[in-house]
Amino acid sequence: MSDKIVIGDFEFQGTRSCCMACSGLIDKFDMYAITAAGQDRFVVCGKCLERGDIDKTLAEEAARIRAAIPERIRNMEAWVAHLESMIGRTIVPTYAELITAEQEREREYEERERHWKEERKREIEERRLRRERGEVDADTSADLWP
Predict the structure, then answer these.
(1) Are 124 and 70 members of one domain?
(2) Which of 105, 117, 121, 136 has the maximum number of C-beta atoms within 10 A of its C-beta?
(3) How many domains does the chain have?
(4) Do 12 and 79 belong together in one domain?
(5) Cα–Cα distances in angstroms (integers) from residue 4 to residues 84, 92, 122, 138, in the given order
(6) pLDDT of 110-131, one tens digit each?
């Protein structure tokens, strides 16, 4: 059995992906290379293919990630300490209160929408009546149509 990883197929899925060689984002409209069927998924972006030296790219990315490990660990430890400091002190609303707040927000939105539509109808009707009476200003005449 060969230990070579064969990247020979190309895909365009219409979804974003991450290049496993450089950790770069592959846009959902970009074509990318992917491992052949039957192998573990390994995706390589067009920039890495264009660069040409995949081993160098992999080594540089591995070194970059390895160098970031200590800082990441410190950040994670700080976050854990923060979470632990919140234990026993954190008061949150209930799920039922969340649902009630969401429903209230939806009612407020619907009311604003209803008000806006009524206001717009009133403005259109007022402008129609002014136009019938010949009271239309030049600067508002273009705004008469709903």
Answers:
(1) no
(2) 136
(3) 2
(4) yes
(5) 45, 53, 73, 76
(6) 999 999 999 999 999 998 888 8
